[in-house]
Specification:
Family: Belongs to the germin family.
Pfam family, one: Cupin_1
Strand content: 25-35%
Structural class: alpha+beta
CATH topology of the largest domain: Jelly Rolls
Helix content: 10-25%
CATH class of the largest domain: Mainly Beta
Number of helices: 4
Subcellular location: Secreted, Extracellular space, Apoplast
Mean pLDDT: 85
Order of helices and strands: HEEEEEEEEEHHH
Number of strands: 9
Number of domains: 2
Protein name: Germin-like protein
Largest sheet: 5 strands, antiparallel
InterPro entries: Cupin_1, Germin, Germin_Mn-BS, RmlC-like_jellyroll, RmlC_Cupin_sf
Strand order of the largest sheet: 5-4-7-2-9
Distance between the termini: 80 Å
Length: 178
């Protein structure tokens, strides 16, 4: 009888320890920044409607603090992102897809991505971002439109092109490349 009682107590103790309630979640995005406003616009997400003209482009850019999910409502878009800084013996892999109305595509946080309207009419998409402040860096604007300009020797070596190509690119108007 004592052995059966010991077995029962041990079984109950193991069951109680194994089935303890637990909870896990990400911290609130509101804790990322000191928000000193009593405003309902601090929801932890961002939404944007993007209207693409025929052959319109959202140039290569990145959101350093947010993942983007794109839902296409109208038109056809060619979208893609590039894995960056892969491991040894790997290449920067490009992932692309042509979206039709109703399709969804996810761009991982911080990765270079783009959207191009390949349809015969305008396109409309909604983008949701996983942060109230995802940030955006448009690559061409940052590299070729900086003030003062990045030294053309640096860029020519980085892109492995002639300095004249860099000079020509730096002469473009990059402020409206969106």
């Amino acid at each position: 009888m004592a052995l059966a009682l010991k077995f029962l107590v041990i079984t109950i103790a193991i069951y109680a320890l194994a089935s303890s309630p637990s909870s896990a979640s990400d911290p609130s995005p509101l804790q990322d920044f000191c928000v000193a406003v009593n405003d309902s616009k601090t929801t932890g997400i961002s939404l944007a409607r993007i209207d693409f003209a025929r052959r319109g482009l959202n140039p290569p850019h990145t959101h350093p603090r947010g993942t983007e999910v794109l839902v296409l409502l109208k038109g056809r878009l060619y979208v893609g992102f590039v894995l960056s800084n892969p491991g040894p013996n790997m290449k920067n892999k490009l992932f692309t897809k042509i979206l039709n109305p109703g399709d969804v595509f996810v761009f991982p946080e911080g990765l270079l991505h783009f959207q191009l309207n390949v349809g015969k009419s305008n396109a409309i998409a909604f983008a949701g971002l996983s942060s109230q402040n995802p940030g955006v860096i448009t690559i061409a604007n940052a590299v070729f439109g900086s003030d003062p300009p990045i030294n053309h020797n640096v860029l020519a070596k980085a892109f492995q092109v002639d300095k004249k190509v860099i000079d020509d690119l730096q002469q473009q108007f990059w402020w409206d490349n969106n």
